[in-house]
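User: My instructor asked us to take a sequence, write out its structure as tokens, and then describe one feature of it. I'm not sure where to start. Here is the sequence I was given:
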Amino acid sequence: MLVYQHLKKLDPDGARFSQVLRDTIDQLLNGEATGRYDWKTLFKTEKTHAGTLVEINLQREFEFDDGIDMDYRIEGIDVDCKYSQTFGAWMIPPEAEGHLCLLVWADDYESRWSAGLLRIERAWLNGGTNRDMKFTVKAEHRSKITWLWKDATLPENILLHLDDATRERILIPGKQKGQARVRELFRSVHGKRIGRGVVRTAAQQLDYMARVREGDKGRARPALRPEGIIILGDYQSHQAVARALGGPTPREGEFVAYRVVRATPEHGDRPQAEIDGVYWVVAKPDETGGVAPRLPEAQVGRGGH
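Assistant: Let's start with the prediction itself. The structure tokens for your sequence are:
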């Protein structure tokens, strides 16, 4: 199938696709302005708009041509894009019959997503009893979907999945508390990729990324260093430290925080990272170790955080 092969060539592991879905959900939540992190807090009109935003953002990311009758033109074939937060609830319009549909599902609570292709046949669809005569794919015919990616991992909405006590500790109320919220985020969440959307929601400020960087002593990196905490960004040098520590590696626009201690012979074969000539390991809860090292700067030409 030409469209299938083209999409897999553009995005072999689905990383670009999954990031579009993560960014689109974050765009809808608009945490910078609203402080929201939970899909359930969206207005009904916002949820309805999600499908349009997914369609637009995928076209922007992959530079699909406009379709003639459907949304996209891919390898000379018209393709309609349908998104649903509920698996199987894609709303198929009558005019899509005979056309190829890109069916997309993402669930922030499960941190999973899927995308597949189906050429629509009327016999495979339910009803059309709703007001605008849209149909859904019958459950017994979902097996006919050719999956590009099935139950893949969606970048985690960290704030959504925290326990209530930790989340409340991070999300301190108040307009002037953005810096404090960002510090508490990196004080509390270690060994997990923290995306831009999470930092934006915590900061609720236009210059949210500045809340992390070196500079003023109140910023997260210098403020948390005395507590033994390092905040790795997407610089190549930081990614190398993350790999050496044995944890997840921050991708573009992401951070991973750790509390570290100097490596000693007692640490045995625990993963170690060299920072400025000294070896460090991820600290266990009962280990204390003083001030964390200052991380290496970005290489010339690399736009990291």
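For the description part of your assignment, you could build on this observation: The radius of gyration is 22 Å. Try explaining in your own words what that tells you about the chain.
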